[in-house]
């Protein structure tokens, strides 16, 4: 498979922002983080229709506490238990903060009338697998078991994320199944980072050092090595790299969205096909011309706007209040 021809393949509105993006330095984890930080937009100002609160979820079984940020409708008290999304930010398992998702999650709360709890999970290489997954499980357990006290509906809980966060969401579903615990109502997987093995054509097609706005193969290798730690190159469990899972039965229904010029295209499509083959209700969307990181609020292009609408529709179907029998 030849390298991605950005000019020919990427949606035109995305091409317009390429000159505004920084030139990534993929030399090391530190340089990747520095570029990422420099590219970040200022935190979104609070939306008066949304109540944000930062809290700490107590760790159990020797695990550390986990910082989270709640987003709720400002008038939620009168609405009874809310549907809730547990959100896991992206960043290649090595980057990402709560602040960068404020605008996206504020908008989701306003549009859908739900609650969202965003997880400040620990990053590699300082905290390799399974630290981030443990943090996701800690928060998920608190929300699921203390739903009434938190004002959320335990029957309408979704886990989701973008990129590495979506990889953690998929891994959490695998872990919950293996522990014999209930699944979420939906796993919302936005171009998930699932496979460390570089076995697909789309991941091997990334040029070195990569196109502006696209992930580099060097960054991919550095990120997976950081996240897997001593497991890298060895016996990697499916809860670290979900694409390795042989058995996908018994998992939550899935929404999976990815662009067709995303390096994760092939592993994402393969995972969706195997979920469906395992009897998991699966909704797969492939968006022409959309790059990795194309999902945002507000969207920049017609196809990323469609991406956002499709995500909202999938969540609305799960978040709809149960009808009286």
Automatic annotation (TrEMBL):
Domain of life: Bacteria
One Pfam family recorded for the sequence: Abhydrolase_3
Residues covered by the Alpha/beta hydrolase fold-3 domain: 85-293
InterPro entries: AB_hydrolase_3, AB_hydrolase_fold, GDXG_lipolytic_enzyme
GO molecular-function term, one example from the UniProt record: hydrolase activity
Keywords: Hydrolase
Range of residues in the leader sequence: none
Protein name per Swiss-Prot or TrEMBL: Acetyl esterase/lipase
Organism: Trujillonella endophytica
């Amino acid at each position: 498979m030849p390298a991605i021809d950005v000019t020919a393949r990427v949606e035109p509105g995305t091409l317009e922002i390429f000159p505004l993006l920084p030139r990534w330095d993929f030399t090391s984890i530190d340089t990747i983080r520095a570029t990422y930080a420099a590219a970040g937009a200022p935190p979104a100002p609070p939306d008066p229709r949304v109540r944000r609160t930062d809290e700490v979820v107590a760790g159990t079984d020797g695990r550390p506490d986990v910082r989270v940020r709640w987003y709720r409708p400002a008038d939620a008290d009168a609405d009874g238990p809310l549907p809730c999304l547990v959100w896991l930010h992206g960043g290649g398992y090595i980057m990402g903060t709560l602040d960068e998702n404020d605008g996206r999650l504020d908008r989701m709360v306003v549009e859908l009338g739900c609650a969202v709890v965003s997880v400040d999970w620990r990053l590699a290489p300082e905290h390799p697998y399974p630290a981030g997954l443990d943090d996701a499980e800690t928060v998920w357990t608190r929300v699921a078991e203390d739903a009434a006290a938190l004002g959320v509906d335990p029957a309408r809980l979704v886990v989701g994320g973008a990129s590495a966060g979506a990889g953690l969401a998929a891994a959490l579903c695998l872990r919950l199944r293996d522990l014999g615990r209930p699944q979420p109502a939906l796993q919302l997987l936005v171009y998930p980072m699932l496979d460390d093995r570089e076995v697909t054509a789309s991941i091997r097609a990334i040029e070195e050092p990569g196109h502006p706005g696209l992930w580099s193969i060097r960054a991919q290798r550095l990120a997976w090595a950081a996240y897997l730690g001593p497991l890298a190159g060895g016996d990697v469990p499916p809860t670290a790299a979900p694409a390795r899972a042989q058995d996908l039965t018994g998992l939550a229904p899935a929404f999976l969205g990815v662009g067709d010029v995303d390096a994760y295209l092939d592993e994402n499509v393969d995972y969706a096909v195997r979920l469906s083959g395992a009897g998991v209700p699966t909704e797969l969307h492939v968006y022409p011309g959309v790059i990795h990181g194309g999902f945002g609020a507000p969207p920049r292009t017609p196809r990323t706007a469609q991406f956002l609408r499709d995500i909202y529709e999938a969540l609305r179907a799960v978040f709809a209040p149960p009808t009286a029998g």
